[in-house]
Design a protein that fits this description.
mainly alpha, 3 domains, 481 residues
Length: 481
């Protein structure tokens, strides 16, 4: 079905330039008329110009009204622009009528010029608001010198305040996502001009969505209207940004899709999300270098580890490396398997407990006796005790590990009874449970108690693995370390 009003309304951006040109030209002729030597031909052209200006202003205002009525526009800026456009048309008509009277009586210059000046002032304001609808708030002062930006309230806030801490602690939305929306979306979907009823300048606006419903489905980027429109072909009628505008760079579009797939949280730090390799250079360019693997770095002040203690630990067959250049935190791995000495080797790490960030004890002969020492490593974020003799008793000792995010229990003797202690770990986001003695019912209870916890399982039960409560254990692939 043809929408005649919308069709005519689309000509508004073209038609609006005609009254602007005619009114400005009429104003220039009025200035020339102030000179004593201005000839009659110039004076005679003033009245026709004002008549044409009034006619074109009326046509442009009508087209603008039809464009606004066709949907997709709204907000205080749009409403004021529409009203002022009508005022310009009325002012141009009044000016033309005053010029007609002057033409007949030979007097009335002051009335014509006063009406024309007022109309031009309103025209300037309406034009500025129209450009704001198209280009966004602060477009006029975006590249102005700093003193002018201060005088006029500054340009648009296109970037978030610089984050000065460890990049892994940076909240993803304000540091990575909000600047993307500000650069590419807020000009049309901001507080003053929310096209389609959609404001993308605040978390509340993003959650609320627009006239057609939500645009973000947390955890499901492919089902989100925002992502769908960003990835449409450039010639598609629904593509965003609209046809004719510069599309989002693939890196920015990828960031938005990754953020939504990760849950679209407005507070979650970078260290709690899995960062795809293709996005790591983008994030590092904006936040700074990430630590190896992008771990969360606890916000604690810590001096560098004692070199003598590092030397002693290395002599015991423990591999210790800085998590990043200049960082006091360590990634630690027991080398080899030395029963029954492995518990003692873990105990030798006690003086360095605060410095341990990643701890790998896989394929060692540790027992539950090592876990009280591990519990003293309160800054550890990743712990791998896979293929060891760890049991439920060892897990219960890990309660002090408030920073723990990833726990690998593959091939251990953990049962359903030990899973209850995992739900109490506040930052735990992933646990590997392949070839353990846990049951599907125990896993479901764990998921219910900790909805944000990802439990990594496999597809097939192993006949030769230990069982619990007469049921086969759950299988799954070994987790990478």
């Amino acid at each position: 079905m043809i929408d005649f009003g919308a069709f005519v309304g689309r000509f508004h951006p073209l038609l609006v330039h005609f009254p602007i040109a005619f009114l400005l030209l009429a104003g220039a002729l009025e200035l020339l008329a102030l000179r004593p030597r201005t000839g009659p031909p110039w004076l005679a052209a003033r009245f026709p110009l004002l008549v044409v200006a009034a006619l074109t202003a009326g046509v442009a205002a009508t087209a603008g009204y039809l464009l606004g009525s066709s949907g997709g526009y709204g907000g205080a800026t749009f409403d004021l622009h529409l009203r002022l456009g009508i005022v310009v048309a009325i002012g141009a008509l009044i000016t033309a009528l005053a010029a007609w009277r002057r033409q007949r009586t030979g007097s009335g210059d002051r009335v014509v010029r006063a009406a024309l000046v007022l109309t031009l002032i309103v025209l300037a304001i309406a034009g500025h608001l129209g450009a704001t609808l198209t280009h966004g708030e602060g477009y006029l002062t975006e590249f102005a010198p700093a003193p002018l930006q201060t005088l006029f309230g500054g340009g648009p806030d296109r970037t978030a305040a610089a984050f000065t801490g460890a990049p892994e602690r940076a909240a993803v939305y304000p540091t990575l996502i909000q600047p993307v929306l500000q650069r590419h979306c807020v000009s049309c979907h901001g507080p003053g001009a929310p096209r389609g009823g959609l404001s993308l300048d605040t978390p509340d606006g993003i959650v609320k969505g627009g006239d057609h419903g939500p645009v973000v489905t947390p955890g499901r980027a492919q089902s989100s209207e925002l992502v769908r429109r960003l990835w449409l072909p450039a010639h598609h009628a629904d593509v965003m940004p609209p046809r004719g505008q510069r599309p989002l760079p693939p890196a920015d579009a990828g960031l938005l899709r990754w953020w939504i797939d990760g849950g679209a949280s407005f507070e979650q730090p970078l260290g709690e999300l899995e960062l795809p390799p293709e996005l790591r250079p983008v994030v590092e360019a904006r936040l700074g270098p990430l630590s190896i693997g992008g771990p969360t770095i606890p916000a604690v002040a810590l001096a560098a580890p004692d070199p003598a203690r590092l030397t002693a630990a290395a002599a015991a067959g423990i591999d210790l490396r800085p998590i990043a250049d200049g960082s006091p935190f360590l990634q630690v791995r027991l080398m080899g398997r030395e029963p029954p000495a492995d518990d003692g080797r873990v105990a030798s790490l006690a003086p360095l407990a605060a410095h341990v960030l990643w701890l790998t004890l896989a394929d060692t002969a540790i027992t539950d006796a090592a876990f009280p020492v591990i519990a003293r490593m309160t800054n550890v974020t990743r712990l791998d005790v896979s293929r060891t003799s760890a049991t439920d008793g060892g897990l219960q000792a890990l309660a002090p590990l408030a920073q723990l995010e990833v726990l690998n229990l593959y091939g251990t003797k953990v049962t359903d009874a030990g899973l209850a202690s995992l739900a109490a770990l506040p930052r735990l986001r992933r646990v590997y449970l392949w070839q353990t003695a846990v049951t599907p019912a125990g896993v479901e209870r764990l998921r219910a108690a900790a909805p944000k916890l990802e439990v990594v399982l496999g597809d097939d039960a192993q006949e030769d693995a230990p069982t619990a409560a007469g049921r086969a254990p759950i299988a799954g692939p070994p987790a990478p370390r």
